[in-house]
Amino acid sequence: MRQKEKSKIQLFVSQKVRELRDEQKLTQEQFAERINRSRAFFANRENPNCGMAFNLDMINTIAKEFKISPKFFIPDEGL
Question: Rounded to two decimals, what is the model's pTM?
Answer without folding.
Answer: 0.88
